[in-house]
Amino acid sequence: MALSFNPQELPVLGIDDHLPPVSAEVLRPEALRRRFVAPPSWMPEIAVERRFTEREPTHASVLVPLVQRDEVTVLLTQRTDHLTDHPGQISFPGGRAEPHDADAIATALREAEEEVGLHARHIEVLGSLPTYTTGTGFIVTPVVALIQPPFSVDADPFEVAEVFEVPLSFLMSPANHRRHGIDIAGVRREFLSMPWLSADAEPRRYFIWGATAAMLRNFYRFLAA
């Protein structure tokens, strides 16, 4: 669904640098495993977006792939511009559930292999976060997993324009979480963004926002609880 506004042009209403970052110790693979084995008492901060479509709700899953490098990173994709839902936006690998999927985890694993060629042999599922309902009517289950390198990426060119990684520590620091808002047809829409500048020889700016940023914020609440 095409947007009627450019989220990158909206002013920043606030930055959450008053909240502490998740410590480096908690972001290590062993600590992440322990967190899902014995989860804390917590509540997602953002669970449902304001709906702006009348279509029937659809179940979907995304894989939140935590790559086990020297510093854990999050693998993300940039969607191609011609897609019907969320074109050009940054997202996790994922998509709608199919009747033959055994459960939400099976959906996430299937979609990750179809979209970016990430095979299940590299994936260690840790668990799932509470569902997140998008304004476009998708009820999304985020499936969090550790990814063991080395692995190759074979992106589906129809759906994926680019695959890249962002340090988990950057995303789990609220000093990098920005708040935005806009009124559309008399309805207030608010969202988070987490703009990231790559460390490449020619740095690129990636504007992580909307549902992806909201699910990352919920992951922050889970790890910080």
Task: Annotate the secondary structure layout.
Layout: E1 14-15, H1 29-37, E2 58-67, E3 73-79, E4 90-91, E5 94-96, H2 104-116, E6 123-128, E7 132-133, E8 138-147, E9 160-167, H3 168-171, E10 178-184, E11 187-193, E12 196-197, E13 205-206, H4 210-224
Parallel strand pairs: 2-8
Antiparallel strand pairs: 1-10, 2-3, 2-5, 3-4, 3-9, 6-8, 7-8, 10-11, 12-13
Entry keywords:
single chain, 225 residues, alpha+beta, 3-stranded antiparallel β-sheet, 18% helix, 30% strand
Please sum up the structure shown:
The chain is of the alpha+beta class and 225 residues long. The chain has helices spanning 29-37, 104-116, 168-171, 210-224; strands spanning 14-15, 58-67, 73-79, 90-91, 94-96, 123-128, 132-133, 138-147, 160-167, 178-184, 187-193, 196-197, 205-206.
Question: Overview of this structure, please?
Answer:
The chain has one domain: Nucleoside Triphosphate Pyrophosphohydrolase. Helices cover 18% and strands 30% of the residues. The protein is built from four helices and 13 strands. Strands 2, 3, 4, 5, 6, 7, 8 and 9 form an eight-stranded mixed beta sheet that branches. The chain has a three-stranded antiparallel beta sheet with strand order 1-10-11. Strand 7 and strand 8 form a beta hairpin. It starts with 13 loop residues before the first strand and ends with a helix. The mean pLDDT is 92.
